[in-house]
Design brief:
By secondary structure, the chain is of the alpha/beta class. The chain folds into two domains: 243 residues, Dihydropteroate synthase-like (TIM Barrel, Alpha-Beta Barrel), CATH 3.20.20; 88 residues, Sulfite Reductase Hemoprotein, domain 1 (2-Layer Sandwich), CATH 3.30.413.10. The protein is built from twelve helices and 15 strands. The strands form three sheets. An eight-stranded parallel beta sheet has the order 8-7-6-5-4-3-10-9. A five-stranded mixed beta sheet has the order 11-12-13-14-15, with helices on both faces. Helix 10 links the parallel strand 11 and strand 12. Helix 6 packs across helix 7 and helix 8 runs parallel beside helix 9. The longest helix has 17 residues. The radius of gyration is 23 Å and the shape is elongated. The mean pLDDT is 91.
Amino acid sequence: MQIVYKRKKTRQITVANILIGGNAPISVQTMTKTKTSDVTATLNQIYKCKEAGADIVRVTVNDEESAKAIRDIVANAPLPIVADIHFNHIFAIKSIEAGVSKVRINPGNIGHKKRIGEVLERAKEKNIPIRIGVNSGSLEKDILEKHRYPTAQALYESAMRHINIANDFGFDDIIISVKSTKVNLMIEAYRLISQKTDYPLHLGVTEAGSFVAGTIKSSVGIGTLLAEGIGDTIRVSLTDEPENEVMVGKEILRSLGLRQTGIEIISCPTCGRLDVDLFNIVKELESKVKRFNKNISIAVLGCAVNGPGEAKEADIGVACGKGEAIIYKKSEMLRKIDENNIVNEILTEIDNF
């Protein structure tokens, strides 16, 4: 039985053709790692992100060369592009003029209220949303002095300050993030902002780290909030390729039953009871199922303890024995197969599913 998480209903915004908030599916975002001025390299990375299943891609616009390049990137990108702006509000304005689908500004370093107002006015003219991206590492000086160090309340106050500024300018097309490198702080801050507003929330643990450490931190932080019904779009921040961020983000959603796209592989951790080469079987299977665009669960289990039962629960499953396995489809036992044919037999059943 699928557990259904009661999600908080937030107001809805539109990023090009992607809906965020309300009842819209939770979207997966990432950010390019190339120099934005290198249009070809940046577009190549964006296409890889699309192939991996990204919904939205953010691109830094941090200098004049990037500001010039963003127009060509937007014109040729297969996904909605978000301009990431720090320090210089002029780059935000140039990005809006270039046709980006959303702008992310950091309240801690964007500058005077007048500058923010200029960005909001241009965004309103073009009917594009703004993400107010609060970060524990770049809080405004007065808020940091008040709280002495980053706290959930400090992150909340920074976000609310800039929500109020936006409202003063008649701008309400907003999405909020309150990120921290500390998982507990990030969770607490998002819980607070969720209690106090109905704006859609962009979830993430900022600067989470390497693939392994960052995946764990992001899964705990983002996953906890999603399980509580908090969050409308996510970004996993890894010191790794952006398509791997997308992969982890999709798996977080899939693990909670919040996104059913592609083939899910369920496999046992193995132990001394194992009599087949399950490590290589699963690795080969993972590489070969990428070509399928089907929502199917595949279970590959190593022994007779839980294998038959869990294999029956998947759409397609195999329970392995000594040098052989039994293959199941929708709980029905089909046949015995040789260990060397496990991957090909599963692929055949996927083709026929």
